[in-house]
What we know:
The structure is a homodimer. By secondary structure, chain A is α/β, with parallel strands linked by helices. Helix content of chain A is 41%, strand content 17%. Chain A is built from 17 helices and 13 strands. The first copy, chain A, has helices at 4-9, 28-38, 51-57, 80-83, 87-95, 113-116, 125-133, 152-164, 184-202, 218-229, 238-241, 243-251, 279-289, 308-317, 341-348, 358-362, 367-384; strands spanning 14-21, 60-66, 72-79, 104-110, 140-145, 169-172, 207-209, 234-236, 259-261, 276-277, 294-298, 329-333, 353-355. In chain A, strands 2-3-1-4-10 form a 5-stranded mixed beta sheet. A 4-stranded parallel beta sheet of chain A has the order 7-6-5-13, with helices on both faces. A 4-stranded parallel beta sheet of chain A has the order 8-9-11-12, covered by helices on one side. In chain A, helix 13 runs parallel beside helix 14 (308-317). Chain A starts with a helix and ends with a helix. Chains A and B meet through helix 3, helix 4, helix 5, helix 10 and helix 11 of A and helix 3, helix 4, helix 5, helix 10 and helix 11 of B.
Amino acid sequence: MTSDDEGSRFGPDRFEVVYRIAGPPDEVETRAKQIALEQTVEMPDEVVTDAGIRQHIIGRVERLTPLPDGASSATISYSVDAAGDDLTQLLNVVFGNSSIQPGLRVEDVRLPGTYLRRYRGPRFGRAGLRDAVGVKDRALLCTALKPMGSSSEELAELAYRFALGGIDIVKDDHGLANQSFAPFEERVERCVDAVERANRETGLHCVYAPNVCAPGSETLRRARFAAGAGAGAALVMPGLVGFGSMLELSLDDTAQLPLLMHPAFLGSFVAQREAGIAHGVLFGTLARLAGADASIFPSYGGRFAFEKSECLAIRDAASTPIAQLRPIFPAPGGGMILDRVPELLDVYGDDIVLLIGGDLYRNGHDLTRNAARFRDLLQARTTSAP
Amino acid sequence: MTSDDEGSRFGPDRFEVVYRIAGPPDEVETRAKQIALEQTVEMPDEVVTDAGIRQHIIGRVERLTPLPDGASSATISYSVDAAGDDLTQLLNVVFGNSSIQPGLRVEDVRLPGTYLRRYRGPRFGRAGLRDAVGVKDRALLCTALKPMGSSSEELAELAYRFALGGIDIVKDDHGLANQSFAPFEERVERCVDAVERANRETGLHCVYAPNVCAPGSETLRRARFAAGAGAGAALVMPGLVGFGSMLELSLDDTAQLPLLMHPAFLGSFVAQREAGIAHGVLFGTLARLAGADASIFPSYGGRFAFEKSECLAIRDAASTPIAQLRPIFPAPGGGMILDRVPELLDVYGDDIVLLIGGDLYRNGHDLTRNAARFRDLLQARTTSAP
């Protein structure tokens, strides 16, 4: 037991991480204790002599539960003081060194409201993004400008046609960066102009979302440029720029853009069942904590291997109540086709951003008509609803 | 074939990525072609009509080779124009969306010298870091300040004792960020003072390396503060802040600090044999490209599960000639103990930073004596060498 004096160095608030631990159940208690040390003091238990650190800072194994598949669930709590105010350090406590341990997976992260007050979360969230595109009661339509190698002028022409067809969000393909064939600033200006021209013709509120990812603080600079040029959202890949950079964009009062999180370079966290971070945590909980307003992920039945249950976990984590963090849009994509729109809406519901890229290009060359067909599929559902 | 006109939109230079593809050999050609599309145009092959994009931008399957274990090796080349000048976009082309594909692993990244000219690489490298600590001919000694929860004053006292014992690099434990118990700026100032005080007594050149990781551009701000306060190096975790943030630090003329890369939150890339990024590429090639001067990794035989061969791959990738990129120090750690120093030097050689943390705390309470014993183990080898 520690004295009150020692207690006063650290606050009482703790957060919990639920880990799945593979391997024999009789080793689980030892492994859980090792994780609790590894993620905090990172030294042998017997060397830690300070009573306050022992009581508060060393992770605490709260519960061990056998799982039906033979693995175990270990709930470990950490002092919020170990994470402090930096999102990067929170992630470090959750899974910094332990990410290197095989057979260990983060299944849940549970943050107390007192700690969550340090975060604003999504600036726009679902309601704010709906306001931005002027759509109240149906799924939002999203598509991507491609292929890489096209000029800014060509991409802007595509943006125009898609916006004319009624797409709500026209985003850069995630591989458009600042290449010579379509430099960032030139591309942003042209695509913004193209979408605004279409909006004047349609009376709609399509927004263009450029990819602002770049090394270091250049990401913030590009986001600010995009906002200044009239872009209505931004595409961010925390796998490439870090969750902390996305957080910074979400807090920046100069940029003030809805953020579409994209999963590129995050795949290794979810490419295995026994390690990494659970889909809902990575693409839902952490996305919201780091300020994403929509979270793009590869839906089941497309070019990637996510299972339906994993996709539904993302959908649910995007809106489950977490203190003041606004609900965000799950944005299934990754090889979705028009023919599956009714099914996807049945499965995910209407509070999604539905991302269809390649299939709009494949279905004949009239992109505006293809976009309009996409829109009709969503409108049809809305009007046929009770 | 394309005309000269089309060719002129894109340069001829290409880089190669070698992927390991799990699964039946008869599916490998199809999978390789899918990767080549996924990582570039991200749309069905038949929809890409532009001849220049088809010839230059779509990834090109160069070689397919069966591997002894039944998997296959696929070498795919990409135009350097697809990556442009941004390191983040290079990583995106290498493994952005494909990271989400199960059974796919990056085994090698081969960049032509013409492209590498866009990178400075490590500012210091081995020679520069040796100069900084005044050590010509032996492995460098590194230890960590811990445990988390200690005050700045306590950590500074540890730094003093370690420096007094002859440690070359005293780094923050990677879990020290900007917590209330040891705020970043206060900690940096106190630890710098402590190490300078010890250096005055010993005549040695110990450097203190604070952890500068933070959300977004705050990382750069902290590195600049650290440099201004007199820190001699910085600890960076690209898993948390992105490789692009490390690159930015390496290029920053205000900070100008040797960078110690730490593997936290990168583990999911290497926690599986069939997916992710090969150890040498992640902790060697990409570390150098992004400007690290030393690359910390968990050595075989410690608390983590790296195999000896994987560790040697990191060692080799840290120094294999890559255009003008300086060789850097592999820095094995993660549960190393003093008793293993001779073995580790035999295996890794003397061009390493040897990181021993917890064991220095465990071996009695006289940290200065423990550090001196660590130093003696390295000196003994140097003096006994032919």
